Amino acid sequence: xxxxxxxxxxxxxxxxxxGLVCKLFVRVxxxxxxxxxxxxxxxxxxxxxxxxYGIPHIGAADLHDLIFAQxxxxxxxxxxxxDFFRRLGRGRLSQIIGPKALLFDSLFLTLRLSDIAERxxxxxxxxxxxxxxxxxxxxxxxxxxxxxxxxxxxxxxGYRPEPWRPQDCLVISRLxxxxxxxxxxxxxxxSQLVDSLGLAKVAEIEPEPGxxxxxxxxxxxxxxxxWDHWLALAGFLPAASPGSNNWAVAxxxxxxxxxxxxxxxxxxxxxxxxxxxxxxxxxxxxxIGANIPGVPGILVGRSRALAWGVTNGMLDDxxxxxxxxSADSSSCRGPFGxxxxxxxxxxxxxxxxxxxxxxxxxxxxxxxxxxxxREEKPVSLCWAGQLVSDEVRAYVRLARSRxxxxxxxxxxxxxxxxxxxxxxxxxGHIAYKLAGRAPRREWPGLLVRRAWVARxxxxxxxxxxxxxxxxxxxxxxxxxxxxIPPGLSGYLSCYWEPSSRIDRIRQLLSSQxxxxxxxLRQVQLDTVSLxxxxxxxxxxxxxxxxxxxxxxxxxxxxxxxxxxxxxxxSLQPAVYAAFLLKTVEGVFKDEMGDTLFxxxxxxxxxxxxxxxxxxxxxxxxxxxxxxxxxxxxxRETILRSYRQAFAFLRSKLGNDIGRWRWGExxxxxxxxxxxxxxxxxxxxxxxxxxxxxxxxxxxxxxxGLRGDFSAVVGPSLRMVADLSARDGRILAVQVxxxxxxxxxxxxSNMIETWRRGRLLPVGFDAPAEKKVLVLSP
Length: 777
Fold this sequence. Notes:
Strand content: 15-25%
Oligomer: single chain
Largest sheet: 11 strands, mixed
Number of helices: 24
Distance between the termini: 66 Å
Number of strands: 27
Shape: globular
Mean pLDDT: 94
């Protein structure tokens, strides 16, 4: 009876929650997109013309009013997302969510992103300050204008947004930079592996040859640090690493006689999405493209003279150091004597609890992060993002650049996140530049080092001029896809993605001499995985066919003949993905155990590169299953993995093999940060459809190696910029839509366009079909 009563109460609460949600929907109308709104602080009237998809075209008299209006307009559509980003970066999520967010708040209070933002603010150029202040003024004007008509999330969590500060934009920029860095996950994972299994064993699975094997003379290396609690933070990350594609074909390879640039950044599939499309026009500044809500300007797009796109540079810009602190923690051991350690205090706010004091110890390298590890041994973290920079100036100068050489010069102000910039100008030139900073080291930065050893420490930063760069290459195109940069000399990283995407891009761009924007749009939709083809080629060599039944032999032949195309209605991608998953498990999990293996799977790009090397050689000791008395070779382990793949697929898709389809496993949902229960998911999430592509396809739809094939990372934005377009337009789409408010016209209206591979025109000129909003002083 008590169970029945509890069930009834649960059902009642569900309906009460549903009623509350419905009531809140009634109270949250769409933003004001038409008419006139007063905005004190503007110099003159600003005209905002939204097209049929909610993309605003903003025309203003000067840069101040333009950026003010950008802040206003983006806040109309994404105010809660902006507030969520700044709270996450400032370590203030627990203030609205409660103790469940303490882990994140502790991390970002320790990293001191707020302090970094203040130091950057103090060092900014006067124009950068004016840009950030104008953006903040526009956001605050929107908050005042909205009054009580705020996005649903504010009502659900019971709070109002605080005034926007210019420094909030800098916090969000650093937050994005931290999220795109891999060192804070990879270094603890590999240090933990070496601590558990020894350097010689782990050197067999080093991400790049020589990264660990070069340290074998110091075979006694160990960090002695317990990393589980730190890596719990990484457990909230996507199961696949973020990546991107970009390329530009030169004028002589374009039917229009001018370069064409393409870009599709691969980020988490979120609702709302990471990007916001818009067109900006004022005296001395014209740009169209996409930005991240909370950050002014255009981050990916074009001006009249120049187009630019980005991919993650994948640089190794984070290191951990063992420290030896004095008894009172006021100093630490350095190479040449004692070094000062400073105590700084912050406040930790938790909903429903009194504020708490939060202490951080700062070394010359960075903060002591041991409390996040729940570790007594002091460990400090050094990150390039702790340095002062002026990315705002870089992006303003980029939009004003007249050619690719001026654009490269503008990127000298750029620090984090390190990005592969592809550039194209209207004069016909194309270029590639890796912008950002990486430390000078005497060693590859994959393991924890000792702060008191001089050769273990950073010796400055690699100059911007020495970072890889290409201008007008003879092949007539430039491209990047998170792989080793062209012309790389020395160590910058070992966190590269597998070469599948960049190899496929180069293969396709080399297949014909001239291109149109439409043809290059089709390249963005390519679902061929060269990694899958290579994996099947190498793995199948170790499978003795006489040990298979007839159905398994038939499938092996199908896989060997397969071109790697990962269409959602195809059978082969499902078998390949299950085979890959079971091979990774079969090779690594027995030595690592459940916890270490789960941590290793946080780095699918590294484990997949390592796996191909091992399959090509076939002699690694990792092929042996240490749980059995026999010594297994690649032959036994790969055969078992292949058989297990079929058992896995039967459990997921049923016994009728003829009905197996990749799309039944590989589905896509755009997820909201608050979608932690059924009601929130129904309210804020969107999607849930079968999706093509995979981890290593140009049309990326990455899944993890943890047994769930859901697409979690992919092209959050697609853009094609043809510099021969007479009206200066780009073609672009971002998902799921421009507005974060459910059941409004622009909430998820771009999904079908995106799914079909179509793009929307975004130009400098006013759209034909439009809603007009005038902002007046």
